[in-house]
Each structure stands twice: as structure tokens, then as C-alpha cells.
Amino acid sequence: MLSFVRPEYLWFLLALPLVWLLGWFNSRGRSGQRRWLALGLRTLLLLCLIGSLAGTQVRQPVQNLTTVFLLDSSDSIAPSQRSTNEQFIAEALQSMQEGDKAAVVVFGENALVERVPSDIQRLGTIQSVPIAARTDISEALQLGLALFPADTQKRLVLLSDGGENSGRALEMVPLAQRRNVPIDIVPTGIEQGNPEVAISAFRAPSAARTGQEIQLIATIESNTAQSAQLRWRADEQIVLEEAISLPVGTTSFTTSLVVKDQGFHRYSAQVVPTNDTRAQNNVAASLVQIGGPPKVLLVEGEVGDASALRPALEAANLVPVVVPATGLPTDLAALSDYEAILLLNVPARDIDQDTQKLLRSYVGDLGRGLAMIGGRQSFGVGGYTATPIEEALPVSMDVRNRQQRPDIALVFIIDKSGSMDACHCNGGDMAAREGGGTRKIDIAKEAVAQAASVLGKDDKLGVVTFDDAAHWTIELNKVPSQDDVVAALAPVPPSGQTNVVSGMNAAYEQLRQSDAKIKHAILLTDGWGHATDIGNIAENMNKDGITLSVVAAGNGSDNALQRYAELGGGRYYPARVMEEVPQIFLQETIQAVGTYIVEEQFTPAYAGDSPVLADLQEGLPSLLGYNGTVEKDNAQVILTASDGSPILAQWQYGLGRSIAWTSDLKGKWASNWVTWDQFPRFTAQLVGWLLPRISNDSVSGEASLIGSDVQIDIVANDEQGAPQTAMNVNARMVGPTGEAIDATLVEVGPGQYRARVASPIAGTYLIQVVGNDANGKPAFARTLGLIVPYSPEYRQGQANPELLSTLAKATAGRSLSQPIQAFDHTLDAVRRATPIDLGLLFAALVLLLLDVAARRLNLRRKDFTALQAARKERQTAAAVPTATMSSLQGAKGRARQQMFSDKSEREVKPKDNPATTPLPSKPENSTKAIDEAEDPIERLRAAKNRARRQ
């Protein structure tokens, strides 16, 4: 059977009649046989060429079989069941026939290839370890189908309980059908007799008010009668513990609690049974939003930053909560207790990257408010450039976007003495060779590389390292690439004593010779040198327009190092934790290269309208300083400085709002504001603009678990209690990782909206629901909380044999009871395609030569007859007796001798002058005549020629 890879070339077969017609007319002078021979060769030639172009293949039946085993290794499969399934595969491999192959895929939430198709008849120990918290059969089927070779019979064998809780296996059925691959199943039943207890449902109201009594309901399933302990918790505090008796089946238990604190709170139930198999399904929880006055979180960078703001907010009936940067919540549920968060002069290094991402999600996904208040540790100088928090704010930290700044020459003076070989781990030092942690010198190298990345192309960078003496690692010159900086720093070893003076002098000399407008040095050391010498150098540097900042990395003389920074006109940073150094270097470099702090007295100018300044347009107090920033494209600037820099800017970010107030709100830059009689009104309106909008008490909502899915229900009424219909309602579900899941709610009844989110992972979720009317105008917003306590993998009744049966029936598969059935050769034969296009091309070349010979050479039948006659003459001559041959050869010799004698006589009697008369020529064919006379073969040939002439 033939098939074609490029069948479109077969259209050239339509040209064959034309080829025959032209060939017939062009061969009119030839005999009939030659004409038909030429046409036949030409036809075969074209057929071979067209077949080669079309990619001709010969398809032959193949009986070899490849079986791919899909082994369920999720947590719903008991270890003993998994062992039984592995034994099934091992026994099946023993029944493989010659030419058969087998592959193994192990799956849970993901699928892994344990073994590619192979004819090895031994399974071995399973090495693949998939994520076991869920079961995704569809991914296993997809991977199994991808493993099959093209030229064998194919069979999938699925060993599972069918307890799918991720993906949709039925979506793989059409693919298996198209490839003619049956899915055989080996159902894995639930082991009987193993005790199992699980909290199958936990219910609590989604919202309550302070002082209200709420009811908590826990539904517990048990397959054996036993006793247990039931613990009720509010947040992480046990509020009630009771002994319970569990019958076989499902039982509900109820308790009541009075809620006090506002915000989102976690309520949970935990069952501690006497006999159990899995502990993962023994806890369930729910979030309850407790209403009250809006809570605002004030995060202080330094103690006292909130001293003026806190009483002003309390006067506005808000509930301010003041915490240091270390007290900032690090999970989204805890952050959501607050309607707004204000960062008061907090440096970026005090907020880790994960918490910064949560704050961005807190604003954009949950619709809450965020404000950054200025100070010497805030905005750009605080290190917020290119951070998640900057993304959520209406201003950019890079002031160079606004104006051209002067160039800078920056030198890092880095201690590379032996003490920098120590590792900094958990606030303490230890020898690097003892293992653990990162060496101080390596952290310093990373800090320099990061800081160099913010310098401009016109700036200059130098790095001098010192131990007993100074060493220029990077000469003061144009800033190299970050890769070049890393390469230059990499080979620097920590060794020797600490001589700070040598490093200071080297940097001082280079900077003094530089023509840069700004000259700055940053010293990093964990020791000290000669105090008097260093102080003098720092003071001289300052007199020559060179500023010096100092970073104390560990055990140095902090008081002395701080004194050097003061003499050098720079800043002092005590890095108690070495890991802070990169952020310090970055912050210090940013402050050095730009106008990040402007200290001058000015009165803010109006640039736009905002509810923040409602009824406050007259008599604004003056400010004494601010942080330099640049407004973003979509931001609204309300107040500006004298040079147009934003002082107050606001914008909508996602579902929430954020504000940038670039001055401070304490008695330094804003001393005239905090004593202003309208200051409480101003701060209340600023925070009020940040609070979530369009809350509606007539709108209620609930998020609940239905099976493995989350169901979101909203009931929306107007102020008169009438249903709000034809609304566009959308929900954003923010999970424990900060990733958002969007869902659209469908109206299932008058004013009733619902959405389902399939099988989210375990964790705490906050759901922001926003409803808009038909004209797109916001009508309501509601925040819901939900806790997915454990994966549906750990629920009872997880097995789904109906799904397995459906997969088998839809693909003509079977339920296997014996391992040998996995390699039954009962499938339709598969054909293997063998390409012959190259062979057809070579055949066409041979046919081309024959075609040319048939048209150019005039060969007739009598030519072949004569050739045969000559061959017979030669055979007859070979049979002449030896005596006759000898006689003939003697006669030939005498004739030749006589001929030479006659020739000699003619040469002796010349007729003319021998000098001028040419010698007589040899008679033509004389030798030939002699040969013919003497050689019987020649005589026969001569006779043949005479007969032909006659």
C-alpha cells in the first residue's frame, strides 16, 4: 500500500497525456517498436520523478505493541494500594513479547516520566516523586499519549482510583480517539477497614459586627465509631475544647462565640480522633469579617513618626494602629484587617520583597488604600526604586527623569581584611570554613555591583579595597558594565590586617583629582584604624568637596565610625545584619546621584482638585523640605513644590487607591502643618480618600466550598430593598501566594449573582467583589474571606470509578483484571511507512540513460544476428586441427618472406635519383592480405565482407 507525504505533486500526472502526444509526434521516423519503447521509458521516468517529489511511502502492517502505564501516586492512594499497582506493572512487563515496549508515567498533581518506551522486562524501584496533594489524570493522559512511537500499536493502562480534583481527564478523550489509543483501566478501590475521620464542612458567617454572637458549625465524617476531641479556635487561640463521640457517618457540632475585634478573623475547628489514617483533613477554618470603625495601620520608620498623625486620626473617629516596620503583617489576611496603610518614613530595606508584593496586591486586588509619607528614609532615598511598592504609588523615585543632574565620581572603600572572611549568620559571625551563611566580603561585592547599576553613563566609579595596604580593584573611571564590575570584584580575597587609613588616602587622592561636580566616597569596614588619622582625612575630604558616608559591618568601633561620617559630611549606617549592606549601598548611591532630598522653605502650590483638600484651599502652611520624585503619567498631582515636583499626588491603582505625600508629617519638614488648626481635617480627608469606596449594607455575600470548588454568592438590593438586576458583577480572588484569580458572577435570580472557581489550592483567600450597573457606574463593593483548609485529595469518597469507566468506554478500552492483558495483541494492526522517494529518484536517473539510448542509437535486430554469427565463426576457428593451423601459419610465413624479398630488389634498382625519388609505398592492405591468407579467422572475416558487398 502506497501513501504520499506531499500528495499535491501528484497533480503532475495530468501532464502524462501531453508527454505521450509530444513523444509520439517526435518519434515518427522511428520504427514502431522503438517508438513504443521510447514512450514506455519516458512514462516510467516521469512516474518515478513524480513519485519522488510526492514523498512516496510503502505502508506495511506492524504487529509490535507499546503500552504506557499511568501510575497514580497521589495521597488518595494508600501505600499498600500503590505497592499492589507497582506489582501489577512488574508482572505485566514479564509478559511482553519480542518487539513490544513499555513506558511508565507516575502522576499526582503533575506527571513525570519514570521510564521511556523500552523492551526491558524489569520495573525496578519507582524513583519519580510527583506532587501528591492532588490528582490530575488529564496531565498524565496527555504525557502518556506523547510518549508513543508512531509505528507501533498503542495502549494506555491507567492505574488509579479516578479521584480527579485538578484538570479534566475527559478533555483528553478526543485526542485518544483521534490517535486510536484505547485507555484500559485498573481501578484502585478504597481499602476497607482503615479508620478515617475528616471535617467535611465548616460554616461561619462571612460578616459580623463587634459584640455580635456568631455560630460555628463543624461537620465531621467518620467510617468507624470512636471518641475524639474537638477544639474550637479564634485566630490561633483555643477558645473551647470538648470531648465528642463520633458514630459511623456524618455528624454536625455547633458552638457560639461573641466577636470583639474588627477586621478579618480566622475561626477554625480541629478534630483529634482516637483512630485515623490521614491528619491532613482534620482541620477546617473560615474567615469572618467583623465590622466597626475603619482601622488604619501606621507603620513608623523611626519612633515618633506617627506622634502627630495618630491623635489627628483618632479625632476623625478612625482607629489608628501604630507599629514599627518589623510589625508590618506578612500575610494578606492580616493586612486586610486594615482599610488603609500609611508608611511613615520607612526605608525599603525594612520591608522584604514578599511583603512588598503583598502590599501591591493589597491595593490593586483588594481595593484597599496605601500612602507613603516622606522623610530621610522614604521614597528614592529610602531605596524604593524599581520595587513593588513603587509600582503601586503615583510617583516615580528617579528624579533624573525631571532634570539633568551633575555628574558624580563615586568611590567604594571596601575592607578586605581577614575578618571579612567570616560568615554572617543570624546576626553573628562565624568562620567561613565551618560552613553556613555567606561571607562578609561576598555580600560587600554584591552590594557594590547593585549600587553601580544606578549610576549614569557620565558618572565615574572606583573601588579600592584594603587590608594592610590599599589595592585599586577598579580604577576611578567611566562606569563599567555590571558584568565587568562583578568580574573585577570576584577574585578579591579576604586576608591581612585592617588599615583603614590606606584605603581612605587612596580614595581621597583619586577623588581630589577628579573633575566631577559631585564627589562621594562610601567606606565599608568591620574594624577601625588610627582614629586621629582617619578623622583628619575625613575632615580634609569634606573641605575639598568630597563627602564620606560610612557603613559599619559588624564589630567595628561604632562611635568612631559614626564620627568619621559626621566629619566627612555624609551619613552613617550601622549594619547589624550584614545582609542589609546591599540595600544600604543602593540607598546611599541613589541619594548621592540625585536631588532626592530638597530642604528649603516654600508654600505648596495648587495643581489640581481633590477631596483631600476639600474646604482647605486657603492659607496652606509652608513646608521646610520634601523628597524629590516625578509623577507618573496617569497620576493626579494636587500640590507641587516651587520647581514643579509633586508634594501631594494620588491615583487609582487596580481596585484600590494610593497617595504620595513627599514631605513628612512630623515636626521637621512639616512643623508648620502639624501645628495648623486644620491638620486633623487634612489627615482625615487624606485617609478618607484612601478607604474602600461604595460599601453597601444592603449587599450581602458569601464564599463557600462546594466539593473541590469555591462558590461565590452575592445578593444585591438597593436602599429600598428591591433587587439590583442586570448588574455586571466581577470578583477577584487573591490567594496565599498573592496570585489573583478573576471570575465573573452570573445572575441566577433577581439580584442574585454566582460564580464558581475550580479547585483552588489550600490556603487563605480574600475575594473582592465589585458590582457595576448597566452604564458601568460602580454600585457596590464587598470583600469576602475564605479558607480552603486542605486539598480535596484528603476528602472521604474521593474515588471516582465512574470517571474511569467513562474513559474506558469512550476509547474502546477495557477494565483489566490480569497483568498479562496489558500486552494482548488484540488491537488493529498499525502500518509502518517506509520512504522510497530516494530509490525512485535513482530509478529515474537510470531510466533517463535508457531513454537517451533508445532515442539516439539505431540498433536493429539483424545487428544482433550478425554479432551472433561472428561469435560462431570464432568458435569454429578455435576447433580447426592443430596440423592444419601449423600448415597455414607456414604458408603465411613464406608469403611474408617473399614479399620482403621483392621489396629489397626494388630498392636495389632505383629508376630515379635516390635523393629525390620517394620510396615506393607499401601496397595497401598487403599485410592484411597476407594475414587473411594465413589466418583462418581473417579468411572467414574476408568471406563475410565479400558476402555483404554482394
UniProtKB/TrEMBL annotation:
Residues 66-248, 409-593 form the VWFA domain. Residues 872-950 are annotated as: Disordered. SUPFAM superfamilies: Class I glutamine amidotransferase-like (SSF52317), vWA-like (SSF53300). The chain crosses the membrane at residues 6-24, 36-55. Residues 914-928 have a biased composition (Polar residues). Residues 902-912 have a biased composition (Basic and acidic residues). The keyword DNA-binding does not apply. SMART domains: VWA. Keywords: Membrane, Transmembrane, Transmembrane helix. The keyword Transmembrane applies. Pfam families: GATase1_like, VWA, VWA_2. This is VWFA domain-containing protein. The lineage of its organism: Bacteria, Bacillati, Chloroflexota, Chloroflexia, Herpetosiphonales.
